[in-house]
Design a protein that fits this description.
about 200 residues, mainly alpha, 7 helices, elongated, MFS_dom
C-alpha cells in the first residue's frame, strides 16, 4: 500500500487493490480446487508451477504499471493464482508423502514460507530507503517464485522414478518370497513322497 500511495497519489480508494487480490484469491481457491480434482496424482504439481510462474511475473509487473487500472489488472491475476497456490498445497503434499506424513509436510512448508514473509518486508523497506523506490524490491520478489516453479517441474519425474524403484524392489522381494515358498513346498512334497515310498 505504501508503494501504491507513492506511485498513484491522485487516486482515491487505493484500498481496492487489496480487495481485488482478496476477491480473486477466493475465486481462485474455488476454481483451481475443482480443476485439481481432474488432474491425476502428482501432476497437480504443474498447477503449482503455473501459479508460481504467474505470481512471480505479476510481482515483476507491478513497477511497470503506469496507470492504476493496469495495477488492478495485475493484482486480479496475482490473487487468482494465489488462490491456486493455497488450494492445491494440501493435495500435492498428500500425493507426495501420503496420508500419514501430510500434516508434517504442510507444517514444514508453512514454516519455510514464514521466513521470506517475515524477512521480505524489512528488506523491501531497506531497498526503498537506499534506492528511493520499491521497484527493485518487486523485481527481486518475483525471482524466487520463478526459480521455485522451475525446480518444482522436476518433482513429478523424481517421484515417478522413486515409485518405479520401490516397485522394482518390492517386486524383487515378492519374487524371492515366491521362490522360497516354492522351494519349501518342493522340499515338503519330496519328503512326503519319500515317506510314502518307504512305507
Amino acid at each position: 500500500m505504501k508503494y501504491v500511495n507513492e506511485r498513484f497519489q491522485d487516486e482515491t480508494n487505493k484500498e481496492v487493490v487489496l480487495m481485488c487480490i482478496g476477491i480473486t484469491s477466493g475465486v481462485g481457491r474455488l476454481l483451481f480446487g475443482r480443476i485439481a480434482d481432474f488432474v491425476p496424482g502428482v501432476k497437480k504439481v504443474y498447477l503449482q508451477v503455473l501459479s508460481f510462474a504467474f505470481i512471480g511475473l505479476m510481482s515483476m509487473m507491478i513497477p511497470l504499471c503506469k496507470i492504476f487500472v493496469g495495477l488492478i489488472a495485475v493484482c486480479l491475476i496475482m490473487g487468482l493464482f494465489d488462490g491456486c497456490f493455497i488450494s492445491i498445497m494440501a493435495p500435492i503434499a498428500f500425493e507426495l508423502v501420503g496420508a500419514r506424513d501430510v500434516s508434517q509436510a504442510i507444517g514444514f512448508l508453512l514454516g519455510f514460507m514464514s521466513i521470506p514473509m517475515t524477512v521480505g518486508p524489512p528488506i523491501a523497506g531497506l531497498l526503498r530507503d537506499n534506492l528511493g523506490s520499491y521497484d527493485v524490491a518487486f523485481y527481486l520478489a518475483g525471482i524466487p517464485p520463478l526459480v521455485g516453479g522451475a525446480i518444482l517441474c522436476l518433482v513429478p519425474w523424481i517421484h515417478s522414478k522413486k515409485q518405479r524403484d520401490i516397485r522394482q524392489t518390492t517386486g524383487g522381494e515378492k519374487m524371492e518370497k515366491m521362490l522360497e515358498n516354492q522351494n519349501s513346498l518342493l522340499l515338503n512334497s519330496s519328503g512326503v513322497f519319500k515317506k510314502e515310498s518307504d512305507s
